[in-house]
């Protein structure tokens, strides 16, 4: 991840560039991409595959691509870590965490983009709300965040915090395991959004069986209507779902160039050898 949040011009350039090389990823789960969904992703062993999502205009390397469970797990962790850096090092609220803001490279790295709607965090406490603009039917949807993934306090109270991003992340997680479909289908109608938000607890309850068991409790908490009940990105990275030796090995591989020779030697001779049987051969994760 870059150390500083890029400006809007560089982000737009980044989006255009990654669009050319994006794999099937979160974006191609969306029906707007022209894809057809054959079923929900697998939540079993890491060697199993997620179902195909076939899109008409996808690049050759992404056609008939299937997600491995470990790729989903590591991808969600990468976005969570990106939000943690953004919130605590950058003091910035993303305010538009949704599938179209997540880009997946050919090498399997999940990147957080779409920084057009950021807000500065509260200087005293990042979890405290700051004023922000709610979604409005008087403006084009193209110049506003994705309403279907927006936290309720933004629309109802015209306020947001880093915990608003966590609600949006919870909605993204549900979409990943719900055929790419958001729990809220507002059709860019604020009244429809508010009506469906009243039923979001029931929607979460119905989708939970599709979500991996170690991720279910965290997902439920992320989608609490009260911001204070949601975990921060820092806390979310510590849940059991991410305590996977294979994922931890991939994390180390991502930053191996920053490690000293002794650490590298231990990794290749011990750590990698122990977890290699649990990393599917097809996975290209960690290759940067």
Automatic annotation (TrEMBL):
Domain Protein kinase: start-end pairs: 1-242
Highest taxon listed in the record's lineage: Eukaryota
InterPro entries hit by this protein: CIK-Related_Protein (IPR051177), Kinase-like_dom_sf (IPR011009), Prot_kinase_dom (IPR000719)
Gene Ontology molecular function: ATP binding; protein kinase activity
Family note: Belongs to the protein kinase superfamily.
Protein name (record): Protein kinase domain-containing protein
Species: Anopheles culicifacies
Classification of source organism: Eukaryota, Metazoa, Ecdysozoa, Arthropoda, Hexapoda
């Amino acid at each position: 991840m870059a150390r500083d949040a890029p400006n809007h011009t560089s982000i737009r350039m980044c989006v255009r560039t990654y669009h050319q090389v994006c794999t099937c990823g979160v974006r191609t789960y969306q029906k707007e991409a022209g894809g057809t969904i054959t079923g929900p992703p697998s939540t079993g062993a890491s060697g199993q595959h997620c179902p195909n999502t076939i899109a008409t205009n996808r690049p050759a390397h992404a056609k008939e691509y299937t997600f491995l469970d470990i790729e989903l797990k590591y991808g969600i962790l990468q976005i969570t870590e990106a939000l943690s850096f953004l919130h605590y090092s950058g003091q910035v609220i993303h305010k538009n965490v949704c599938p179209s803001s997540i880009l997946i490279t050919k090498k399997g790295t999940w990147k957080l983009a779409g920084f057009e709607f950021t807000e500065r965090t509260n200087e005293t406490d990042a979890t405290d709300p700051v004023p922000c603009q709610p979604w409005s039917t008087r403006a084009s949807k193209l110049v506003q965040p994705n309403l279907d993934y927006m936290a309720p306090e933004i629309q109802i109270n015209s306020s947001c915090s880093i915990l608003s991003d966590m609600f949006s992340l919870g909605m993204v997680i549900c979409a990943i395991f719900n055929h790419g479909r958001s729990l809220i289908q507002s059709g860019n109608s604020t009244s429809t959004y508010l009506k469906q938000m009243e039923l979001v607890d029931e929607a979460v309850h119905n989708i939970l069986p599709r979500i991996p068991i170690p991720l279910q409790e965290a997902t439920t908490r992320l989608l609490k209507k009260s911001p204070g009940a949601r975990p921060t990105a820092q806390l979310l990275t510590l849940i059991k779902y991410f305590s996977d030796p294979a994922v931890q090995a991939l994390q180390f591989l991502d930053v191996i160039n920053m490690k000293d020779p002794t650490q590298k030697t231990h990794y290749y001779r011990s750590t990698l050898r122990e977890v290699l049987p649990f990393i599917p051969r097809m996975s290209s994760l960690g290759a940067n």
